[in-house]
Amino acid sequence: MKFISYRIDAGVGIALETAGEYRGLTAGGAHFPGTLGDLLRAGEAELRTAAAILGRYGARVDPWEVELLPPVDPGKIICIGLNYADHAAEAGLQVPDTPTVFSRFASSIVGAEAPIVLPKVSSDLDFEGELAVVIGKRGRHIDVGSALDHVAGYSCFNDGSIRDYQLRTPQWMIGKNFDRSGSLGPALVTADALPMGASGLAIRTRLNGDLVQSSSTRELIFDVATLVSLLSEAFELSPGDVIATGTPAGVGLARTPPLWMKAGDVCEVEIEGIGTLRNVVQPEPQ
Fold first, then answer.
1. Count of domains in the chain?
2. In angstroms, rounded to a whole number, what is the distance separating the alpha carbons of residues 185 and 110?
3. Where among 39, 69, 99 does a domain terminate?
4. Which one, of 229, 276, 269, 281, lies nearest residue 130 by Cα?
5. Fumarylacetoacetase-like C-terminal domain: which residues (predicted)?
6. For 184-239, what is each residue's pLDDT tens digit?
């Protein structure tokens, strides 16, 4: 199943892809099943019931004619650094023995087709195409063998980074949390529609149509099950939480000269079986 979250004049909506088009309902209208966040908190059965309702009662939704939102409004966005060996190498760092973990705020991301903001205090805005994991089942101290049971589905993520701020200190958080500097979307694809652990999917990033990153999710150093299990040792994972699994080689920082995103640029993160997360870069208002 593939769902999108969106906003129109009538309010916030949810839509299901069926027969090559999206069928959606908006909050306050008849048969509205709830937001994706509501449905994830209610459990897998409710998500399937919602799919049946949307397929039966939903009106056609053109994704180009609505405001696409991040599929979920995450309580936590947990990001993994250096999770592809080729990216660790281009950064001049060793492959880690344990995942490098940092977090992002929900205020730092936008949905597909929304502008990513180039801040007025920096020109060093970098792209990072990533696979996003969306948690569907609450858990703490989850063993690896059952970790994928806690995953509702997957999406695309652009871990937009303000590199000069990121690298001023050993802690990356400030450079990863500028308002509206990253993105999530366009859709949530449920885990049953993809290979186990979303492994073996082609992942590509294009900047103004030029391919700048190309890899496969099979190259993840720490796979999805390992990440879910390890993170749950520290804190409870809740429905709607997002894990951004890291980026492959090709980021702008590692190039000579560096390749930064500029106002007017178009960045696209494409993951096989999930879709393409497209955003235009817009300067922060003066």
1. 2
2. 9
3. 69
4. 269
5. 76-282
6. 999 999 999 999 999 999 999 999 999 999 999 999 999 999 999 999 999 999 99
